[in-house]
Design brief:
This protein is an alpha/beta fold. The protein contains 13 helices and 10 strands. Helix 2 packs across helix 10. The longest helix is centred in the first third of the chain and has 30 residues. The chain is globular and about 60 Å long.
Amino acid sequence: MSKLFSRIGRRRALEGTGAGVVVLGLLLWWLLPLGEEPPSGTITFSTGTRAGVYQKYGELLRAELRKDMPDLKVRLLTSAGSQENVERVANGEADFTIAAADAVETYKLLDRPAADQLRGVARLYDDYVQLVVPTDSDIRSVADLRGKRVAIGLPNSGVRLIATRLLTAAGIDPERDITPRSDGIDTGPRRLGNGIDAFFWSGGLPTDGLRKIAESSAFRFVPIGEDLVGELHDQGGATRYYRATNIPESAYPTVQNGSAVPTLAVSNLLMTRADMDPRLTQWLTRTVLDSRDGIGAHVHSAQLVDLRTAIYTDPLGLHEGARRYYRSVKP
């Protein structure tokens, strides 16, 4: 009888050991869902202006990628913004980038080179249009910009794309009815009231370039109402990606004094080309989603990156590598 129990004990021990191996294997699969050595090599990531959110996000993402893929070198390339970013990925100058959905759609509608090769990796966070004037300015609406010196963003930037559309929606010719300036977030805040009367910015909240100025200088935001967003939608095309919203009162508390500001927003997309290595893209997608809290501690808007919405990369179809990642974590 004792031998029988001994055999049963050994069998159960073996079964227990086998079960433990299975559990350990599943645990390792979960911790390393891609199941192989991290990709290596070099990729180029096109960001944005140095005082903007794209650049800050790119720097932080590079640090996170270094943890997950230590043999992958990530080269950051500053840019004017969304329009230039889309073009760089399309022509192969950059491998990955962030761009606003309206800039991506505009590139596609114009049937620019390799537009059909662009692919989405993740929907990230929204850009908010921020129209800034001195506190004592007589500008109270977009229509009041007529005859003023207005910074509409760098050429080939996403800011310029939105600013020109907004001005047109308000009945203002961007070339004749204002004195347009090409200042971006790098120089616009410093020149406000000293060379320019107002400047447009479109970026995540809060943007460092504005937050730092808010700590030492006074300015205010000009509201952009729903009626003007409706006028934008009437232009058709890529304007369907604009939605009416508010800059929350907590974005720039020293400036907003507890008041939200009506404006419009557009989603940002992490994107690449169809020919990008699926395995590398799958790893990168995982890092983007897993690093949300770490990056979000420094870039507040990045806290909004969410697995449930990341797959909606309209107007781009998902890259195969990103698709593999989302399938692997599907409940």
